[in-house]
Amino acid sequence: MYYNIKIYAKASFHADEIKEKIKCGCDGLELHLQKDFLEKGSCFESCYPQELFRMHNIEAVHVPFYGSGQVMNLEQIFQHEDVSPVRHVFRLAQYCADLWKHRILVVIHTSLSYYDFMEYELFRRRLDTLLSQFFEEFPMVDLGIENVIPMEYKEHQGESPRLCNGFFTDLTRIVCDLRERFGERVGSVLDICHAAMTDKYMSVLLKAADFLPSIHVPRELDYSMERFFQIHQGICRLIHLNDFTGNGYGENHGTPFSEQEKMDELMRLYRTYAFDCPLTLEIREEDYQDCRNYRKTKEMLEKAAAEYGMWENQNLRNRTS
């Protein structure tokens, strides 16, 4: 199989950050909207400088976070009476699609379990109705639903961790159900950091769960990275390529890779399970005008891809620089 992997860079609506990502080399941008978009979304054409939309190819748009830092999850925003925040994201994506003459992926999280997805009949009806409207109104926009971690924890807020239900096969089953209705306009987004954190936390939990007889533990309790690639095979539209340190929260989230072996293994899985989707290097930086961590991760990716013969390293540099 011939691989021509596209590399996207995470960027916000800041010209200096976008210029730095262009300088580092990328095939396109995944715009990560901030909480200000909740206020400016209705007038983004005039509220943001036009140059931001035209500086470099835009491929994906990530829904914003609320002011509290809480993620705007699929199951939350689509049951609100006012769905204008997510509609503005779809409208922005269509605007970028018209500008760059290709489809745009809207990325959104969900922590909904498959059981609840099936039980919440009114939610599913409304989701079906709204997605039908959005897909008709914004014909060049697709939806990518991203995996989450089994526990949410907001540092420095004095709150207990919040356990999530829908963090593993739940997502892929929900995506497959939605694809029966909307086809390939719905797909999954595999976040490597979230997958690795899931493996860490669930491995510890299952090891301590002596109430589960090990001889009867089903295969679905295999939370390894390989299992993540396996269940996302054929439906994955985008991979968020990043790592984590420590507990994975705050500054420990979305970090660059420190071990070349990890990147090598990810590229092996990418090739083994015949993925053909792009990769967003969603990497945290101390200074987004000097993206050292992005450069480091990109170099490791190039080395791993070359090691597996997935492309010639020099050709990749020529294309992304």
- Overall structural class, as computed from helix and strand content, comes to alpha/beta
Number of strands: 12
Q: How much strand?
A: 15-25%
Query: Quick check: average pLDDT?
Result: 90
Instruction: Determine the fraction of residues in helical runs and give it as a percent range.
Output: 40-55%
What kind of sheet is the major sheet?
Answer: 8 strands, parallel, barrel
Stretches where pLDDT falls below 50 for ≥5 residues?
312-321
Overall 3D form = globular
**What is the gyration radius calculated from CA atoms?**
19 Å
- Determine the N-to-C terminus distance: 24 Å
Short recap of the structure:
The chain is 44% helix and 16% strand. The protein is an alpha/beta fold and 321 residues long. The C terminus is likely disordered.
Describe the protein in words.
The structure is a single chain. The chain has 321 residues and is α/β, with parallel strands linked by helices. It has 14 helices and 12 strands. Helices cover 44% and strands 16% of the residues. The strands form 3 sheets. Strands 1-2-3-4-5-8-9-12 form an 8-stranded parallel beta barrel, surrounded by 6 helices. The chain has a two-stranded antiparallel sheet with strand order 6-7. A two-stranded antiparallel sheet has the order 10-11. Helix 1 links the parallel strand 1 and strand 2.
